[in-house]
Write a structure and sequence with these properties.
This protein is an alpha+beta fold and about 60 residues long. The protein contains two helices and four strands; from the N terminus they run βαββαβ. Helices cover about 20% and strands about 20% of the residues. The chain has a two-stranded antiparallel sheet. The chain is globular.
Length: about 60
């Protein structure tokens, strides 16, 4: 699985990194960053949880 954040849509609500800090992290302004776009199978469910809770739908998930 691969994930991507649309930085133009992200307004920094922080739901993604609150629910899934193993996958998502805040930058200095509180917007979401992804240290590693490739997500292991072990973290795929938590990555989905963070993405599905984004109020702006700024996180895309690509199944591979």
């Amino acid at each position: 699985m691969r994930i991507r954040v649309d930085r133009e849509k992200c307004t920094g609500h922080g739901r993604c990194y609150t629910l899934a800090p193993q996958v998502y992290q805040p930058d200095d302004e509180g917007s979401c960053i992804i240290p590693n776009e490739q997500v292991s199978a072990e973290r795929s469910e938590v990555a989905r949880r963070g993405a599905l809770n984004c109020p702006e739908d700024a996180i895309e998930i690509f199944e591979e």
